[in-house]
Amino acid sequence: MATSRGKAKPDDVTARPKAATRPAVPVKRKAAAKARGPAGGNVVAFEAAAERLGLTKGQFAETLGISRDALYRPARLESAKNQSRIREALEIVERISGWAGGERPALSWYRSHAIPAFGGRTAEALVKDGKAALVRDYLDAVAVGSFA
Questions:
Q1: Which of 2, 7, 15, 104 has its CA 20 to 30 A from that of 75?
Q2: How many domains does the chain have?
């Protein structure tokens, strides 16, 4: 039987049955599941790394040479190229932190210290150009007493 507004009552046999819906299941991303990359490797937590270094997400992205668009698209942050840059930068900062007196002074060195062996370029500029291996080799040489 229809009401005055034309809506069918539940006992009306001419009423269309509701479409079958799946029960709503809350999607929870566990840290372990989120830490897996496309190739099965670990994904570096961008926000946690930025916070640890005392930077905003925007500052950290600029330091790494990652576009601001990537900050709002997790798939871009988890791309192999961006993950490689994040890992390389963090590795270099961690290696320097013992000599510099902490992570923040090491980050300052990473961003501003001109390395004479590379024509006055900073570690930051070299990592942005994909030459983090050169910086690691340079740090290895300095660690064993080679003249920088």
A1: 104
A2: 1
Does a structural domain hold residue 25? no
Query: By residue range, what is the domain housing residue 61?
Result: 40-143
18 in a structural domain: no
The residue type of 113 is: H
Q: What is the pTM of this model?
A: 0.67
Print pLDDT tens along the chain (148 aa). 555 555 555 555 555 545 444 444 333 333 333 333 444 457 888 999 999 999 999 999 999 999 888 888 888 889 999 999 999 999 999 999 998 999 999 999 999 999 999 999 999 999 999 999 999 999 999 988 876 6
Within a domain: residue 137?
A: yes
